[in-house]
Design a protein that fits this description.
- This protein is mainly α.
- The protein contains twelve helices and three strands; from the N terminus they run H-H-E-H-H-E-E-H-H-H-H-H-H-H-H.
- Strands 1-3-2 form a three-stranded antiparallel sheet.
- A hairpin with a 3-residue loop joins strand 2 and strand 3.
Length: 295
Amino acid sequence: MSTLAHTMMTAARSADSGLVGPGELDRYPYAEAPGVDRVGVPSWDAADPELGRVGRRSAGSRGRGLHGQLVQQLGQMIVSGDLGADRPLVPEEIGQRFEVSRTVVRESLRVLEAKGLVSARPNVGTRVRPVSDWNLLDPDIIEWRAFGPQRDDQRRELSELRWTIEPLAARLAAGHGREDVQQRIVDMVEIMGHAMSQGDALTFSRADAEFHSLLIQLAGNRMLEHLSGIVSSALQVSGGPITGCDRPTEASLGHHARIADALAAGDGAGAEAAMRQLLIVHPEVERVVPAPREH
């Protein structure tokens, strides 16, 4: 096994790092509007009981600390509809409900505002924004939608986006001679093969995600590169056998290897065709290839 493969397999078993370091929480003071109307404040008791104290870590908290966990829980509540559009969010009440400091609440609301989920205005306060204002390409929002009431729509939309983005990226990537990136793509195939032989699904999935991210980077299109996070999120939340990336199989590994070979040979048409085969590798699943929807 190569040094890269060993390093990546070791890293895959390590805990994810937190998002906020010491002293980071007070960088963005969150001014509260005086005299905020508290009528119609969210009924926290109606929310999922598992969204209780922030100290009770959910599966999605990923070691983020109190700030990250509060973002996760409030985000899930907004995306699921537990906190509907235009509902006021009062910082003091959030702090009491989740037993966290004002600083944690302020920074968490600031993050949610950046994602388009809430807005804060003088004399109005902080309120939940409608779906049309959300940043639907944000990885966290993709995850929250994928595991909430909108899961079917989210997974279908991700599948359709991948079908649009990745074959094109594969074709463009074959026209670029960045040998270092191409070699790393080959390394990812090696890691995936070794991980599959060891039954290590976690390492396989991480190498798979990097394979697709590198391929989009190699395409040399900055707008496509900006969308690489969508593909990574799709690989993490697909939740079913929709494409050849959803579970480690010999067929999946073979398609990845053919893509890597086509890239190395500068065969754009071959790379594109291999990517399309990868995205429809499970023919037993109905409507694998995105089809036009009735309006």
